[in-house]
Amino acid sequence: MQIDRCICTQQTFGELLVRAHVDGLSLDQLIDDTRAGTACTMCRPYVCRAYRTGATVFHEVLNYDDEPAPTADDSTVVRRLPGG
User: Fold this and answer.
1) Angle (nearest 5°) at CA 56 between 52 and 59
2) What are φ and ψ of residue 41, in 5° steps?
3) 79 occurs within a structural domain
């Protein structure tokens, strides 16, 4: 199984990270602006993990208990993207 996108918005986690990087968005701002993780909410832990780690493809099922709450340090992954 490969999980690489928010099905509700049809945005890949890679596209979301680029958007966060280009626009300098916090995780909360990214979710508010793109609505990723807000419809069915099943991808919310993936959006959080992608933002926190930079991973854009997942092969395991995540739930809210698998992903820690975001911290101020989580923005560092966005700054590490190409061009950051």
Assistant:
1) 105
2) 70, 0
3) no
Domain coverage including residue 50: 5-72
List the pLDDT tens digit at each of the 84 positions of the chain.
899 999 999 999 999 999 998 998 988 899 999 999 889 889 999 999 999 889 999 999 998 888 776 666 666 566 555 554
Is residue 12 situated within a structural domain? Answer: yes
Nearest CA among 65, 73, 84, 66 for reference residue 27: 73
84 within some domain: no
Question: Residue 50 CB: number of other CB atoms within 10 A?
Answer: 27
Is 78 among the domain residues? no
